[in-house]
Structure formats: structure tokens, C-alpha cells
Amino acid sequence: MSERSSGPRGAGTRERILDAAERLMAERGVTGVSLNEINTAAGQRNTAALHYHFGGRDGLLRAIMRRHGPWLRARHDELYARVTGSGGPEDVRGLVEVIVLPVAEYIGMGASQRWAIRVWTSALAHPHLAVEEMESLVDLSLTRAGRDLVKIMAEGMPRELAVERLVVASQSVLHVLADRAVLEDAPVSRRRPLPLSLVARNLVDMTVSALTAPVGTATREEAAGILGRS
Questions:
Q1: C-alpha distances out from residue 108 to 21, 24, 101, 163, Å
Q2: What is the pTM of this model?
Q3: Alpha carbon distance 143, 145 (integer Å)
Q4: CB–CB of 80/55 below 8 Å?
Q5: Which helix or strand (DSSP H or E) is residue 109 part of?
Q6: How many percent of the chain have pLDDT more than 90?
Q7: pLDDT at residue 90 greater than cutoff 80
Q8: Which residue, 179, 185, 151, 184, is CA-closest to 166?
Q9: How far is 34 from 229, CA to CA, in rounded Å?
């Protein structure tokens, strides 16, 4: 069922439901909260309100992704254009920044943005939910940056290992920043966190190192046995 359009009153109801869904799904995971709980948290006495506007859980996830996707896509485009306009496709650090910096910057913009990143991270563990919308966040510039990185890494390792490194590193970045989003909203912390900008820069350094680390002898030998080449 697709999302319904509505007048000003309906639009207000829709936004309140979205706000509640972001917060609760961020706190409990995308499958850890019932639709009735979201409806109630949004102050809706009409139990059909959520289904009317979104159709169900998939529709809610699509709406959350669409709410936050445009800013992330625009920032990916900006950073990728900067890489291709200066250092070119061989600029590993610049390409990693395309992956890391937009998410890090976004969680510094407000609670709704932090909830969205946490929801996205949770949704990736349930790929059957709103798959096409999650893939829409992996936009053209982000995809190109990933392909450029794989091409660079594949010069020193089997392409399959390069792809695996990129997938693991990208997922790790998202989980680290989702954890930082939790910390940003925590009333107290047992340790004094580093400034978010420094966390992001350090994460870029760590990711560059993970992607470009030499392949160990044992790894290369096993890969050769499995993949049929060195």
C-alpha cells in the first residue's frame, strides 16, 4: 500500500507519526516496536491512522528514508565531485570521506537525524524491509566512490577480498556512528567523548588503514585456493 496524500490536518498527523516512529525504532530497532505503540506515542486515538497514512511498517521505513535521504545524497554528491575534481579516483582518503563524513555530520544536526541513522543501521539487519528505499540511500555518488575504492584495492588483492573489505568497513562505519548517535543523546556518560568532528576524522583514518592494509600471506594463500588465483 502506498503512502496517502492529505490536507494540512492530515499532514500534521503524518509528521507526528513519523516523529514517533523514528524515535521508537531508533531506541528499540525497526522490528522491536509495534505499530500500535507508534500510533499511541503519536497521540492518535484512531488506531487506523498509521495504516491510513503509511500502510504498515514498510511504508513507515520508506517515509523515514525519504525524509532524510535528500540531504545525505546531496552531501555525497558534493564530496564525490570534490574528489573527482581534485585528487581524482586514486584519492583513497577522499573516497573514504564520501562514505564517512556525511553520516557523521548528519548525526550532529539534531535528534531526528540521529534517530534516522540508528533506524537505517537497524534496518540493514533486516534487508527484507523496504529494501528499495534503503538502497536509495546508497546513491550514485556513494556507489561510484565504492567502485573506485574497489578498483584501487584490487590492484593489490583479489577483487573479492577488496569487495569484502569495503562492505565490512562501510557497515562498521555506520555502526560506530549509530553508537555515537546514542551517546549524543545520552543524559550522562561514563567517559568524556571526543568532539564529533575529531571522531569522524579518526574514523576516516581507521577506514583508510583497514582498506589499504597489506594482505597477509595466509590470507592470500587461502584466497588463491578458494578463488583459483593469487
A1: 20, 19, 11, 29
A2: 0.86
A3: 5
A4: no
A5: none
A6: 61
A7: no
A8: 151
A9: 49
